[in-house]
């Protein structure tokens, strides 16, 4: 994805949809910073070129090779932050596992059959019960409001 020399002062809003990009070039733009999480979901990104004034997202430890020339910085080979090689592994709750979510970013996904807050609930989400209660409450509230507010409606 070549966005070089596009006069970008910030990350374009549509960039979040390009999570399958392998190469991204942001050089020759007056970018001052890359906001945290601007490359969230870019797990396939292997080469990123940014203006020299910017650091590689996630820091140099998120990339295998960081090189700089006179006008740009090239970040290559996105590392998996979940690996415990050299530093502590990312702390995920019990019953979950760490997965990469972009340069220097991680997320913890619940392992099957666990779900919910900190992956403490076992089994599947009770969709039928949840939908039934939500539907009943919605219909009841709608009928109540229709009955009480009907007299205030003007007839044509």
From TrEMBL:
Domain (EGF-like): residue spans on this chain: 108-119
GO biological process terms on file: positive regulation of osteoblast differentiation
KW Aminoacyl-tRNA synthetase (keyword) present: no
Top-rank taxon: Eukaryota
InterPro entries: ATRAID, EGF, LRR_dom_sf
Keyword field: Membrane, Transmembrane, Transmembrane helix
Protein name: ARAID factor
Organism this protein belongs to: Dicaeum eximium
């Amino acid at each position: 994805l070549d966005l070089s020399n596009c006069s970008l002062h910030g990350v374009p809003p549509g960039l979040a949809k390009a999570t399958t990009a392998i190469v991204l070039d942001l050089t020759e733009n007056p970018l001052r910073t890359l906001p945290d999480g601007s490359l969230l979901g870019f797990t396939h990104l292997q080469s990123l070129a940014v203006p020299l004034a910017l650091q590689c997202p996630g820091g140099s430890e998120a990339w295998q090779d960081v090189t700089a020339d006179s006008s740009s910085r090239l970040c290559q080979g996105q590392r998996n932050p979940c690996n415990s090689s050299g530093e502590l592994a990312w702390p995920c709750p019990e019953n979950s596992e760490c997965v990469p979510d972009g340069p220097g970013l991680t997320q913890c996904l619940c392992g099957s059959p666990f779900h919910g807050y900190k992956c403490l609930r076992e089994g599947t989400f009770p969709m039928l019960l949840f939908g039934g209660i939500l539907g009943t409450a919605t219909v009841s509230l709608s009928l109540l409001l229709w009955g009480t507010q009907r007299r205030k409606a003007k007839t044509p």
